[in-house]
Every structure is written in C-alpha cells, then in structure tokens.
Amino acid sequence: MKEVIVEIVSVGTEILLGNIVNTNAQFLSERLADLGLSVFYQQVVGDNKERLKEAAGLALNRSDVVIFTGGLGPTDDDLTKETVAELAGKKLSLHEESKERIETYFKKKNVEITENNFKQAMIPEDSIVLKNDNGTAPGVIIPCGEKKAILLPGPPNELIPMFNESVVPYLKKLSGRVFYSQTVKICSVGESKAETIIKDLIDNQTNPTIATYAKTGEVHIRVTGSAETEEEAHRIVKPVVKEIKTRFGNNIYTTLADVTLEKAVVDLLEAGSLKVQTVESCTGGMVAARLINVPGASNVFKSGLVTYSNKAKRKLAGVKKATLNKYTAVSEQTAKEMAKGTDLGPKADVIVSVTGYAGPDEEDGTPVGLVYIACNVCGKMTVKEFNFTGNRAKIRESATVNALILMRECILEYLSEKTFG
Amino acid sequence: MKEVIVEIVSVGTEILLGNIVNTNAQFLSERLADLGLSVFYQQVVGDNKERLKEAAGLALNRSDVVIFTGGLGPTDDDLTKETVAELAGKKLSLHEESKERIETYFKKKNVEITENNFKQAMIPEDSIVLKNDNGTAPGVIIPCGEKKAILLPGPPNELIPMFNESVVPYLKKLSGRVFYSQTVKICSVGESKAETIIKDLIDNQTNPTIATYAKTGEVHIRVTGSAETEEEAHRIVKPVVKEIKTRFGNNIYTTLADVTLEKAVVDLLEAGSLKVQTVESCTGGMVAARLINVPGASNVFKSGLVTYSNKAKRKLAGVKKATLNKYTAVSEQTAKEMAKGTDLGPKADVIVSVTGYAGPDEEDGTPVGLVYIACNVCGKMTVKEFNFTGNRAKIRESATVNALILMRECILEYLSEKTFG
User: Fold this and answer.
1) CB contact under 8 A, B25 and A40
2) Is the pTM here over 0.90, yes or no?
3) Nearest C-alpha of chain A: how many angstroms from B306?
C-alpha cells in the first residue's frame, strides 16, 4: 500500500481576517484521518491570484492530493478554479450539465440569474465534476500531472455533503485500501486514566490504530482498521473494540457514531419507561436543554424547573427555608431537597438537581466551582460534590455534563437492580 | 508607515488529524486585523522537525513577523523553540526566572516536577521572554535577522492572555502606528439590510475601516482607525461610530466589547427594577441558560419553567386544556397563555415564553421551524411568529436569540412609556 499524502489549502481572505473559524480544515482532516490518509500541511491563503498560485504550486509539489476549499463563487474575487487550472495547464470550457443545474437552482429559489453565475459552470478539461445539491458551485477534480487537485466550495453545508458523497469514494479508490473506524465513547473515567487502562494497546498499535480524544467529562477512543476489503477492515477493528469494551465495561455509553451522551441518557430512560424532571440552579436550564436536544425527548422529558433564586428553590422545588439558612443554597442538603420532587408539575420518576457556584467572584466564602448534583431515581437519592475549574461558562458546562453522567450511572444501577435484584 | 506582514504557523499533529479546531489562528488573525497588520498566509504543520523547519523557513522568508503557536511543551515532541532557534542561529540556555516560575507553578498545583519540565525554561539567546501566568511554557520572541519569530503556547487559555498582555504592546511598537477599534452591536436588523444602511460608509472607507460580521440574530459593525497616537485613533473612529449610531438608533444594543445580547437584556431589567421568568418549550431552558450566563443575573432572574409536555404547560404554566386542544401547543394562543404568569414561583414582572417545533420531522402538519415567542411586560403582551430554517440545533438557537431580542424590544418600549408616556 502506497502512502497517499493529502494537503488542505483553504482559500479566503475572511479566514485571514479572522472573520470565520476554519472548521472546513478540521472536518476534512478528521475525515482524511479516518480514511487512513496522511495530512502533513494545511495552508490558508487569501483571494489573491499571485499568493494563491504560490500556495497551490507548493502544495502540488510536495503532496499527492491537494484539497482546495473556497474561491469557487461567481465573483471576480473567486480565483481557485482558474488558478489551479492554469497551474495544471488545463483550459476551461462551459459544462452544459452544470449550467443547467445552476439555472434550475435559481429557478427553484425564485431568484433572477445573472451572467456571472455561469462562471461557475466553466470546467477545466479532463476534470471530474462533483455535483452540488446545496448551492451553485460544482466541485471539480483536476488532474495535475501525477497529482490531483480537488476543489470544493467553501460553505460547510455545501462542502460536507459533497465530500462525503463524491470525494470519499474517489479517495478510497485512490488509496486502494478500505478504512473502517469505530469510536468507543466513555464517561465517568478521566482521560489520563483511560489512557493508562489501554496503554498496552496504544503502545502496540499498528493496524488498527487507536486514538483517544478528550471532551468535557468524556473520553472517545477511535479504532481505525485498514484492509483491502470492507469486510476485512471490520474484522481487524472488531477484536480491539471488544477488548476495549471489556476493559471499560459500564463506563462505555455507546459505540455508535451518532449517539451523544444525552441521547444515551434518553435511551436509558425510555428503556426503563422512566420520566425525568430537571431542577437546576447554576446550570440554569442547560441540563434540560441538552436532554431536549435529542429528537423524541418528549417521550421521557415532561418538565424542568430553573430555581435560580432561593425563593424559587423554596416555592417551586420545595426546599425548606431552614435548609437554606443552615446549609446555604450550595450544599448537599439543598441539592437533595431540590431533587425530592414536588406535586407541582407532571409526575417524574427521575429527578436530577444541580446547585453550585459558577463565579466569577467568590461569594460568602463559597469557592467558585463548588457544585452539588443530586439524582433521585424512584426514591433512591445519590448526591455528589464537584470542584470544577475554569471560567463561569466552563464550570456550567462541566456541571451539565456531570449531571448527565450521574443520571446515567443512577439509572443504570436502578435498571440492573430491577433486573437482577 | 511601513506595512508589516504577519504569518501564523500553528504547530501540532492534533490539528492535522482534525482532533481540534484551530481557533488560535482565528483569534490571532482577528486581533492582528484590529491592529492593522496584514496576514497573507496561515500554515499548519505537525510535530515533525523536518517539516516544521521547512514551514518556518518559508514563513520567515516571506513575512516580517511569524507567530508560532504550540510545540512549547516539555516532551520530545515539542520542537518549535529548538527548530526556530536553529534557523535563527541562536543557542539555548537556562533562563533562571522561567525556571523559578515553573517550580512555583508546580508547587502551587501540588504536583511533582520532573526534569523534562525545565526544557521549557531553555531560552534562545537575544530573545524576549513572555511570562505565562496560566501554564509552564513561557512565550518567546526570537530575532531572526530582520524578521521576528514570536512563539506562543498552544492552549488558548495560555495563548490569549499572553498575546493580549505581552504581544499586542510589542506589535504596536513595531508597526509604529496605534490602532483603535469599536464594535457597534445591532439586533432586530438583518445583515443585508444593515449593509444597505451603511453602504455609502463601507464603499468610501479608508481610515477608519468598517467591517460587518453576522451572528445568529445579530450584526456587529467594527470600526477601526489607525493613527500615530491613541488619541488620534479615537478621534478618527468617533464620528463614524456616531453616524452608525444615528442610523441604527434603538437597534444598537451596545458599543462595548464585553457586553453580550443577554447582558444587555439583564442590564435593561436591572434599569427598570424588573424581575424575569422564562417559560420554555422547544428551547427547553436555553433562554434561561443564556440569561444566567451573565454574572449577577440573580438580581433579575428568579425562576424559569421548562414546559416541554402539554401536561407541563397546563400544570406549571397554567395553559388551558381547551387552548391546547383548539389551537395546539405551537400557536400564538398557547405562547400567550404560557407568558400569562402563575402564582407558583416567585413573582415576575417580565415573562417570556417560547413554543415551537424544532423537528427533525414534520409532526401533525406543524411545519419544522414554526416558533411563537411571547413577552409579557407588566401585563402588556406581545407575541411574534417565526419560521426558522436549519436543523434542530439551529432552530433552537435562533428561537433563543429571538426571545432575547423580543424581550429587549418589549422592555425598551415599557421603559420609554414609563418615562415619557
């Protein structure tokens, strides 16, 4: 297997001005890594013919495949196709099918077409045209001697589907190998501990490769195998994923790409026919918002309370005035009472509460980052103390994620007791 | 004034693998544009000596100042300082002050120091050391002939304060010019309309420059002036900001850099001594969470309800069963009743409600993206219908921002009636 080196050249003055974050480069890099292709360089260059030519020349010289993003628009500032075609020595001519697609697109949007839009239908000779279902700029693959230049539109909603649908199959054929990845998503274990648990696997990796990624409160382990056939790639990944599953057990919440932590919690609630209520202070609705992020959350989520003030904690969540006076709002006792449940809203089987101090300044001696999270599953109460670091936003995010994690742990315990107990 | 060309070289294999988004490059580009410095190229290169050397050599050849980010850690993989020093022909030696800072840092964290940490205190000769209050890697400015290499640590929480505190003053001196920016933040006006309103200003800009940035529901207009003195730069920006203020009037919510839309709403509530309650369905706590994002929100925010189910809308928000049956949950009538107020929680003067359908699939004929937002200010009810586009997350974000905007409009109206009516 020949190593294929890919380089990403992002074209656009708006990136150099810092007006936008270059998420395209990140998306492409991640997907290319999944495909087992090596990216040694990324470049960003503005809408300037001379500098674009320099960057393109450099990339086509040192890499096998160069993916360009942006600069395929209809204006005079959009130079990518013209510049790369010039470097490749290819003439442009009108591509009838692309012209028709552009006309149809404008008709559908009920917008008048202007002559400069047909600039986008001009295609370099010997190229492969990649159709664009979400905009007017077709993508194009231009052969440059032994090298390939792949030109994609800049807007992510056009680039992403075009890459997935047209470029991935092309690159797979090019590399002559099939790649298959599976990601094991873990919570309740820190990154360094997770790495220690699989250190021997990481140290001895060749095929499949194993990479860990830390997210707030989570660790993702991606296992990627390469082989000549899809089947063989699966066969290579399977035993390693199985071994990782054995080592992390219940701390794995999914091995499916499209399952998030909140989705895993919603699925567990559904599995147990449990309804959930949130009672939030410092997170102020963030736990509820995460759960409702899951399509179909309405099956398990009925209501939530944001009890930010002491009065709200008393009147809505039924926390006793004496508790607040004796232990303060940021205490184990208050968290527990917040999660006790009231008669006010729809009945819930699982109640999760969060109370803490997110800062920015220390208040009445309560240290910034001190957070209590309680979870009540059918009357069984668990409460945990946390000391988060970072700014206000980071502390609130950590609290939100850990509320989801605690819910998951408590519901799992409940379900296993119900089944085996 | 000599044009200073700056280039950004981000070092880190994790960027090339797509594990992280290169937000440092965006941050630096934006700040450099504010300083009136031109960025013609960004590069990303992995933790590989040979390729890093190539990228650094190219950058130092074509640009005046090269900012490197990352690769200043204590491990053998961290090569930036060693590689750039080699290119500049500068020897490294132990910098006592940096060594002591590292020792103090570890002592404070109560973590044992290992020998490789002192690699970070090795500084190239003739360099300027930039102290790091948030980590162990000092930054460093290395003279490379006529050019300057500025090396900054990769973690944003170390890079950002170091850039602001140490690099900005250095660059200002280098360019011999002073730059001053002010941003006018606008809501209730779309981007293309906003651009039309100031088209003449944009078309005729030289100094100050005027740039518009679209955010969900908001438009930011940044005015940047350059001059020989701070005072003169202010003087250049002032009349243009004044003219923009005249044109957008009440649609401007702030001209202060650190005021967000939610902060502007919280400030208005404070100004009117008004308490607020949120009652949310499809946004599920996101409006409450945004308001509570503002430090000190506890002065105005007492409680919020997440009434996702019809039962919760009835039992917690007091929406009539008949209303839900006749008009459905996603209707003007339901939004109004949700914002009517109940006796349950702490008393509120302003109640904002959001009910809508965020998808992904159409349900019972309710189109995805249809959202009603109601705002009740001391009994005066305003309700608006929206048809948002995009996926579930995007629709919920649009609804959240527009709830804040509607609150702002209604409270402003109330305050002006109270004052003048």
Assistant:
1) no
2) no
3) 5
pLDDT at residue B214 is higher than 90:
no
A38, A301, A306, A351: best to mutate for the B interface, most B CBs within 10 A? A306
Question: Would you list the DSSP string of A341-362?
Answer: --SSSS--SEEEEEEE---SS-
Q: Tell the CATH topology of B178-254.
A: Alpha-Beta Plaits (3.30.70)
Locus of tokens 């996702």: B308
Q: What does the block give as tokens for B82?
A: 């060693």
Give B283's contacts in chain A (Cβ within 8 Å): 289
pLDDT tens figures, A271-301: 999 999 999 999 999 999 999 999 999 999 9
Asked if A371 contacts A356 with a C-beta cutoff of 8 angstroms, the reply is yes
Mean pLDDT of chain A: 92
Interface mutation vs chain B, best among A308, A314, A315, A353, most B CBs within 10 Å: A308
Domain A261-420 is in which class? alpha beta
For B313, the closest chain A residue by CA position comes to: A303
Contact A44 B46 (CB under 8 A): no
CATH ID of B5-175, from 3.40.50.1760, 3.40.980.10, 3.50.80.10, 3.40.50.10470: 3.40.980.10
Q: Is A401 within 8 Å of A217 (Cβ atoms)?
A: yes
Q: Do A316 and B344 touch (CB under 8 A)?
A: yes
Instruction: Quote the mean pLDDT of chain B.
Output: 92
Which residue, among B35, B44, B311, would best test binding to A if mutated, counting the most A CBs under 10 Å from its CB?
A: B44
CA distance B24 to B44: 11
| A303 to B289: CB separation less than 8 angstroms, yes or no | no
- Minimum-distance CB partner of A26 among B18, B29, B315: B18
Could you tell me the pLDDT band of residue A334, with boundaries at 50, 70 and 90?
Answer: very high
Residue A417 token pair: 């007791």
Domain boundaries, chain A: 5-175, 178-254, 261-420
Contact, B146 vs B157, CB < 8 A?
A: no
Section B319-347 average pLDDT = 94
- In this predicted model, what pLDDT tens digit does every residue of A151-170 receive, in sequence order? 999 999 899 999 999 999 99
Contact B284 A285 (CB under 8 A): yes
- Is the pLDDT at A65 greater than 90? The verdict is yes
Q: How far away is chain A from the Cα of B116, in angstroms, using its nearest Cα?
A: 19
In the structure encoding, which two tokens stand for residue B300, read together? Answer: 């105005």
- Residue partners of A192: CB distance under 8 A and separation at least 6: none
pLDDT of residue A114: 81
Chain B contact probe: residue of A40, A275, A277, A397 with most B CBs at under 10 A = A40
- What is the H or E stretch that residue A107 is in? helix A96-109
Handedness of CA A307, A311, A313, A314 (dihedral sign): negative
Residues in chain A: 421
Rounded to whole angstroms, how far apart are CA atoms B269 and B286?
Answer: 18
Q: Do domains B5-175 and B178-254 have the same CATH topology?
A: no
Determine whether the interchain pair B285/A278 forms a contact, defined as Cβ–Cβ distance below 8 Å. Answer: yes
CB contact under 8 Å between A43 and B39, yes or no, is no
Give B305's contacts in chain A (Cβ within 8 Å).
303-306
Q: What pLDDT does residue A181 have?
A: 87
List the single residue in A51, A288, A307 with the smallest CB-CB distance to B303: A307
Q: Is the pLDDT of residue A209 over 90?
A: no
